[in-house]
UniProtKB/TrEMBL annotation:
Residues 97-159, 171-239 form the S1 motif domain. Coiled coil: none annotated. SUPFAM superfamilies: Nucleic acid-binding proteins (SSF50249). GO terms for molecular function: mRNA binding; structural constituent of ribosome. This is RNA-binding S1 domain-containing protein. Belongs to the bacterial ribosomal protein bS1 family. It holds the Pfam family S1. InterPro entries: NA-bd_OB-fold, Ribos_protein_bS1-like, S1_domain. Keywords: Ribonucleoprotein, Ribosomal protein. GO terms for cellular component: ribonucleoprotein complex; ribosome. It comes from Anabaenopsis circularis NIES-21. One of its GO terms (biological process) is translation.
């Protein structure tokens, strides 16, 4: 089995077409990373131009260092390596709680598909009252709430929803307008998001279906009984 070391870097260069200079930069990076002088013959290098303005170019360099005991013959997929780098990047962004911007690719019944760092992500929009206004191609400020590379799952939340939830507390009385009625409860617009008032939390009267008590656009007051900051859920109870 061939042992290799793989890394990815973004560098800013002038005259990117100078391949010798690119190799020199890569050798320097590899030597610095490994802690010893790396032999150019043991490197496999792939480059991808990210941005170009005149002679100034930003380049992502993928480099592979083969062990001294093996010749540099490695079979690899650049696409897989780009995906690996992208997953590492979104994990870092999640840890740092950085606002990321994703372009909308399409809508589904349960949410919105977006592109983040070259990956397809999913926005949970059942709590987002602006879902109907979202347009394919639009960029949204988002919070990363789940990264599961093994399941190819990247879940996000609209940053405005995340900010609004942080302003709420369990036990707080809120008011809003009923926008959706389902058999399991009603969704109440409380500003930037929909909170769920489950049928089981309608305490003052036993009902089989919420439409026995409520209509669309009814204005109600309720108490927050549960907050899920990570998943963007607010659960209400009648008060």
């Amino acid at each position: 089995m061939v042992n290799t070391i793989f890394f990815s870097h973004i560098v800013h260069l002038r005259h990117c077409k100078d391949s010798d200079r690119l190799y020199k930069v890569t050798v320097d990076l590899a030597s610095e990373k490994c802690g010893y002088a790396v032999n150019r013959e043991n490197l496999i290098v792939h480059t991808k131009v990210l941005n170009a303005h005149g002679n100034d170019v930003s380049v992502r360099i993928y480099w592979f260092l083969c062990s001294q005991e093996h010749p540099p013959k490695v079979s690899f997929s650049i696409r897989k390596l780009e995906m690996r780098t992208a997953w590492e990047r979104v994990r870092q962004l999640q840890t740092e709680d950085v606002t990321v911007y994703g372009k909308i690719l399409g809508k589904t019944l349960r949410g919105v598909l977006v592109k983040i760092e070259g990956l397809r992500g999913f926005i949970r929009t059942y709590v987002d009252k602006h879902r109907e206004e979202l347009v394919v191609g639009e960029e949204l400020p988002l919070k990363i709430i789940e990264v599961r590379e093994e399941y190819d799952r990247l879940t996000l939340l609209h940053r405005a929803v995340s900010i609004r939830i942080r302003q709420l507390e369990v036990g707080q009385i809120v008011s809003g307008t009923i926008r959706r009625i389902r058999d399991y409860g009603v969704y109440v617009d409380i500003g930037d998001l929909y909170a769920l008032l489950p049928t089981s939390k309608i305490f003052y009267q036993s009902v089989d279906h919420p439409n026995q008590l409520f209509k669309i656009n009814d204005y109600i007051k309720a108490i927050i009984v549960k907050l899920d900051h990570e998943n963007g859920r607010v659960v209400l109870g009648t008060c």
